[in-house]
Write a structure and sequence with these properties.
- It is a single chain.
- This protein is of the alpha+beta class and about 100 residues long.
- The chain has a single domain, classed as Beta-grasp domain (Ubiquitin-like (UB roll), Roll).
- It is about 20% helix and about 30% strand.
- It is built from two helices and seven strands; from the N terminus they run ββααβββββ.
- The chain has helices at about 30-40, 45-50; strands at about 5-10, 25-30, 50-55, 55, 60-65, 70, 85-90.
- The strands form two sheets. A five-stranded mixed β-sheet has the order 2-1-7-5-6, covered by helices on one side. A two-stranded antiparallel ribbon has the order 3-4.
- The radius of gyration is 12 Å and the shape is globular.
- The mean pLDDT is about 90.
């Protein structure tokens, strides 16, 4: 099991009201799943925007670790290391 690491998460403007209007927040965990669980424990309203159901991200939310989309890694089980950067990026729809 990966060690628990505290990382800084970039919060997009659209979700900042659910994170006390902060542009970055810190959360701890050894994987993306654990970090997001820590984040949503701090900011329950943010969790409602990120997850459709427990353990299932809303389809309009993308999570990146060091600019890599977790969908092309180990998804929510992507390990987190010291100095990793985690970004929440809402999908933009248009046409």
């Amino acid at each position: 099991m990966p060690a628990t690491t505290t990382v800084t998460i970039e919060v997009p403007t659209a979700l900042r009201p659910q994170a006390n209007n902060q542009s970055t927040v810190e959360a701890a965990g050894g994987s993306v799943r654990e970090v997001l669980a820590s984040l949503t424990a701090q900011f329950p309203e943010l969790g409602k925007k990120l997850f459709k159901t427990e353990g299932e991200l809303n389809r309009f939310i993308n999570i990146y670790v060091n600019d890599e989309d977790i969908r092309f890694m180990d998804n929510l089980d992507t390990p987190i290391k010291e100095r990793d950067e985690v970004s929440i990026v809402p999908a933009i729809a248009g046409g």
